[in-house]
Design goal:
Blueprint lengths: L3 H20 L2 H4 L2 H16 L13 H11 L9 H13 L1
């Protein structure tokens, strides 16, 4: 039989795990406008069959990262999708 202290600790652990799981649902916490943008990007990607598009905006972050890696752009691992797009364009324009 578990002691009262063990039961309380277990309840706290379960609540903490549930709260962490709720916080990780990041798309549910995003603004509607942002979610719609992500849905649109996903829809376009499915239409292309998962292949990269010609425009930088139609590529996902991983594909953009590979382009930046080939170009030798520093700091690319910490950049988001749109930062990578800007950095690639700046590198091509230079």
């Amino acid at each position: 039989m578990a002691s009262t202290k063990q039961v309380q600790t277990a309840r706290r652990s379960v609540k903490r795990a549930q709260q962490a799981a709720t916080e990780k649902r990041t798309t549910a916490n995003l603004p509607v406008r942002t979610r719609r943008g992500l849905q649109e990007q996903a829809r376009l990607g499915r239409q292309r069959g998962g292949q990269a598009g010609h425009a930088l905006e139609s590529r996902n972050r991983q594909q953009l990262y590979e382009v930046a890696k080939r170009a030798g752009i520093p700091g690319r691992s910490k950049m988001g999708k749109w930062e990578l797009v800007d950095a690639i364009r700046a590198h091509r324009g230079a």
